[in-house]
Design brief:
- The complex is a heterodimer of chains A (340) and B (619).
- By secondary structure, chain A is α/β, with parallel strands linked by helices.
- In chain A, 46% of the residues lie in helices and 15% in strands.
- In chain A, strand 3 (176-180) and strand 4 form a beta hairpin.
- In chain A, helix 2 runs parallel beside helix 3.
- Chain A starts with a helix and ends with a helix.
- Chain B is of the alpha/beta class and 619 residues long.
- Chain B is 50% helix and 10% strand.
- A five-stranded parallel sheet of chain B has the order 2-3-1-4-7, sandwiched between helices.
- In chain B, helix 11 runs antiparallel to helix 14 and helix 11 packs across helix 15 (406-451).
- In chain B, 36% of the residues are buried.
- The chains are: A alpha/beta (340), B alpha/beta (619).
């Protein structure tokens, strides 16, 4: 092959192969090197490595032929995430709009969570926006029915204020109070909204002898956003709250999806009088689709399928998204190199 | 092609595909503001009907939050139906944007990835523009939990039948991070349990010290550490079994025995090697080169002050006091003759190796010595005493050289020792995992005892009783300042200022040049106190400029919010956060009514002054 032929053939190679080739010939290429730049480095060493380069090109061509020879089998797009015809934009955008308003029926897990509170503590770990509030409200209603005090804590003052408004609407303003660092409204109400720090301080005061009457009748403690337990600065407050929570009170931990809810549940079971039930799932209440938008305004699905792949190993990029992103990477990295 | 899509173009495309409302996540506050400002130049505005709806919602909110009324961004938000939402804005403005978004009045919001978790702020579509996020000084990849927190905002319940997460590239984006984030499992939550000083005080207030260990054992931290220790224990058991699988030896602890023998042999060999570096005549000199010995070099004479060998060097050296009174370091090999004469003096442990008076005396003696002096004749030791003799010298101490197990030990020692070292390492780790928390607690308690908050029985002293009510970061610094009477009789403004200094941990640049002399002195005193407490607690940042800001707001009640904002380059939201944190700290100080009535009343005054204008808006 002549130099020109070689260069043209190299341009046909996929990016990954080029990088590998450049590594064997001229050492590891820099992270942000674009395609053209890599070809340039390879060509600089072409004289001494002609055979190796040609071998790489031949392998690639053979692979291409082999791929072309495989017959395309139509597969159901949803059931298989790695094969089959890639989804098109129309099916990706299908179904946008407002769903029909049906009567509200609580999901099974929501009912299960409320029921499980009768038997012990509960951890709910479900995706954002799946309806954790319903569980909190129902649990509060039951505790109110049994004449027990409820404490609802959240990590943020803003969130506490929102919940205060929300609970006041549901249970009536006279039965909901709020205590934050700088606000005290109706602090003797049966339902108290507070930040987790305040509850921790109350528990310390109670343990220190300054008995707070409310803690005797405390029936339910709801810790919203309990994934904050892992927060480097404030996580310790959640831990203290859970350790010192009176044993007669039930705990309801509401959390976004986390990696180890069963470990948390096992811990709670080990330190609390009643076993802790774990309610978890990964289903979103509104399905999610992922798209890729190129800077030129072209929109394509991000994955081969319309639905989200269930795990990273099954996440295969849509060929169009992949092509556009590779193009983008090559353009920007080459451009930034040249100008820099 | 531009490095990333233009914000106006982005929103136009998404509007066309009816993918709005959308939240666009960007890296920095500035990029949010810039994206928002980009709409200023577009002629396209919302229909009058939609603008009216936005105006309606905003004026509805104005009743509760008056600062929305004249917000400078209000006009643009109404005209274009887009907004920026980040921590640099006032909470009231953020609430307004959230409310507009909830009611579906806006088409796009540009937000930072730190958009607070839990705030109900969903949209039909979220746009991801980067795979990294700035953390402290660093830039690191978004975690799966963060990506799912972001994508969780796509798709509003009962308003959308499907939500979209759209990735648009920008330079240095790693698509792998995002696809993993969109499809992967979130990271586990790990305990961040730290034992703080207020925790120690509060625990000891409620429980006797011998109950503490069992209380600490109930923490998630200990639960996780126990799990770790359990896994390690399995490894230890396996290693133990491996160690036991070696056949029994003559001695009970062959590994220790052999390792001692091995080491002794090695040391002896090293000595032998050192000897090889010197010719026999030099070696013969060595025993004579004691401090005080007079030696001759080819051109001068001197007194030996010490003999040494530098680390890693083979050559023996001497430090000598030369004839002229100078101290020199010379190799032993350079000595031409050892004189039969010693001068008695007391050697010192450091340079110049003798007391000054001894040095001058030695110098004098040297000068007075006659030119000719009798030299010692040296008999070089016979060479050839090799390792054979060496082994013999160890015979008496170690049984190994004659032990029947010796070949097996020699063969297996290396492998077995690796196993044993690993075993020891794990055993130590397990030990620290099981008792680490308790030790940390003891360490903290001892500090509190030394400072006088706890008595020798770990019961709270009078100071401890009130100090436990301060349950914030840097509580130790604050209580120590109170005990040092640093806050006695100061102005409310200065108290607010110093609390702001202590509480504010953000190093985002800002500037407020003027602070009062009293405040300067107070900050200096606090800084001194913080550095004296540094061994027990990390010192706070103590930024003087933020202190000045809080002092101005509290000290002069005629200052309006706009004036305050204009006097600094800090963002409005940051000032708000600073003041509300100061408020929290002040209310902690206010709790000390019973023991420090004077200070509590200053704090009460500062609290009432801080709550005005924008600060009063939000409960």
């Amino acid at each position: 092959m002549t130099r020109d032929e070689l260069e043209r053939a190299l341009a046909e190679l996929p990016f990954r192969m080029l990088r590998r080739l450049a590594r064997t010939i001229a050492g590891p290429p820099a992270m942000r090197m674009g395609k053209r730049r890599i070809i340039h480095t390879i060509m600089a060493e072409a004289e001494t490595n002609q055979e190796r380069i040609e071998a790489a090109i031949r392998t690639h061509q053979a692979e291409q032929l082999a791929v072309a020879a495989i017959p395309v089998v139509p597969v159901d797009a949803v059931s298989d995430f790695t094969a089959g015809k890639p989804a098109d934009l129309d099916s990706f955008l299908e179904g946008i709009g407002v769903p029909e308003r049906g009567t509200f029926v609580p999901d099974d897990w929501q009912v299960e969570a409320v029921d499980a509170l009768e038997r012990g503590d509960v951890i709910v770990s479900v995706p954002t926006g799946s309806g954790k509030t319903y569980v909190a409200v129902e649990a509060t209603r039951r505790a109110m029915y049994e004449d027990r005090t409820v404490v609802y804590t959240s990590p943020l003052k803003a969130l506490s204020n929102t919940k205060f408004t929300e609970f006041s609407k549901i249970f009536g303003p006279e039965s909901v109070g709020i205590i934050t660092g700088d606000r005290r409204d109706n602090p003797n109400a049966p339902i108290l909204i507070m930040t987790t720090e305040i509850l921790r301080n109350l528990l310390y005061d109670a343990a220190g002898g300054e008995i707070d009457v409310r803690l005797d009748t405390l029936g339910l403690v709801i810790l919203d956003e309990s994934q904050f337990l892992g927060d480097p600065e404030r996580g310790v407050v959640w831990e203290e709250t859970i350790i010192f929570c009176p044993s007669q009170a039930r705990m309801l931990l509401l959390s976004a999806s986390i990696g180890n809810p069963q470990e948390l549940a096992a811990w709670l079971t080990s330190i609390r009088p009643n076993p802790c039930h774990l309610i978890r799932h990964q289903r979103r209440s509104v399905p999610l689709r992922a798209g890729y938008l190129h800077p030129n305004g072209k929109l394509t699905p991000l994955f081969r399928t319309v639905a989200m792949p269930p795990s990273p190993s099954q996440a295969v990029l849509h060929p169009e998204a992949k092509r556009l992103f590779t193009m983008y990477e090559e353009d920007t990295s080459y451009g930034s190199r040249r100008s820099g | 092609m531009p490095p990333s899509i233009h914000p106006v173009h982005l929103i136009t495309v998404l509007r066309q595909k009816s993918l709005t409302p959308v939240i666009v996540f960007l890296t920095s506050r500035r990029s949010c503001d810039e994206a928002f400002q980009a709409f200023e130049s577009t002629a396209e505005t919302l229909s009058q009907a939609r603008q009216d709806v936005i105006t309606g919602v905003l004026s509805e909110l104005t009743a509760a939050y008056p600062s929305i009324q004249d917000h400078p961004l209000r006009q643009m938000v109404t005209a274009h139906g887009v907004a920026a939402h980040h921590a640099g804005h006032l909470p009231s403005w953020k609430i307004a944007i959230e409310e507009l978004m909830r009611r579906g009045c806006l088409d796009a919001v540009f937000a930072t990835t730190t958009l607070a978790a839990g705030v109900d702020f969903p949209a039909r579509t979220v746009v991801l523009t980067q795979s990294g996020v700035r953390r402290d000084q660093d830039f690191s990849d978004l975690t799966v939990a963060e990506v799912s927190q972001i994508s969780g905002r796509a798709g509003r319940r009962s308003k959308d039948s499907v939500g979209f997460a759209i990735v648009t590239p920008s330079p240095y984006m790693d698509l792998g991070v995002l696809t993993r984030g969109l499809t992967g499992r979130p990271e586990p939550v790990d305990s961040q349990f730290i034992i703080s000083y207020p925790m120690v005080l509060n625990l000891l207030k409620a429980h006797p010290v011998d109950h503490i260990q069992s209380i600490l054992a109930r923490s998630f931290a200990q639960y996780q550490m126990n799990a770790q220790a359990e896994t390690l224990q399995h490894r230890i058991d396996k290693l133990q079994a491996k160690l036991e699988s070696y056949q029994p030896r003559e001695c009970s602890d062959w590994l220790t025995q052999w390792s001692a023998y091995d080491q002794a042999t090695r040391q002896a060999t090293q000595k032998l090697q050192a000897r090889r570096h010197h010719p026999p005549e030099v070696l013969a000199r060595l025993p004579f080169l004691t401090p005080g010995r007079v030696v001759a070099f080819s051109r001068f004479r001197g007194v030996v002050l010490r003999r040494y060998r530098s680390k890693g060097q083979h050559h023996e050296m001497v430090t000598v006091l030369r004839h002229g009174g100078t101290v020199a370091e010379c190799p032993v090999a350079d000595i031409t003759g050892v004189v039969d004469r010693t001068l008695d003096f007391a050697p010192a442990p450091a340079f110049p190796w003798a007391a000054p008076e001894a040095l001058s005396w030695l110098g004098q003696e040297l000068g007075e010595m006659p030119k000719q002096l009798p030299a010692i004749t040296l008999s070089p030791p016979a060479l050839g005493e090799g390792s054979g003799e060496l082994a013999k010298s160890l015979d008496g101490i170690f049984p190994c050289p004659t032990c029947p197990c010796r070949p097996v030990c020699a063969k297996e020692f290396k492998a077995a020792n690796t196993v044993k070292q690993e075993w020891l390492h794990h055993a130590r780790t397990v030990q620290s995992l099981r008792t680490g928390l308790w030790h940390k607690f003891q360490e903290r308690a001892d500090t509190l005892h030394d400072l006088g908050y706890l008595d020798s029985a770990y019961k709270l002293t009078d100071d401890g009783e009130w100090a436990r009510l301060i349950r914030i970061d840097f509580s130790l610094l604050i209580t120590e300042m109170i005990r040092a009477h640093a806050f006695d009789g100061i102005l409310p403004g200065a108290l607010a200022g110093i609390m702001a200094c202590i509480s504010y941990e953000n190093d985002r640049p800002g500037s407020f040049p003027r602070i009062s002399p009293a405040m300067t002195a107070l900050i200096t005193a606090t800084r001194r106190m913080a550095s004296s407490l540094a061994p027990h607690d990390d010192p706070p940042l103590l930024r003087a400029d933020v202190g000045g800001l809080a002092e101005r707001w509290v000290g002069d009640t005629t200052v309006t919010w706009t004036q305050l904002c204009r006097s600094t380059s800090m963002a409005e939201g940051d000032i708000y956060r600073l003041l509300s944190r100061t408020l929290e700290y002040l209310s902690q100080v206010h709790q000390l009514r019973a023991t420090h009535p004077g200070l509590a009343s200053i704090a009460a005054e500062a609290l009432s002054r801080i709550r005005r204008g924008v600060l009063e808006e939000l409960p």
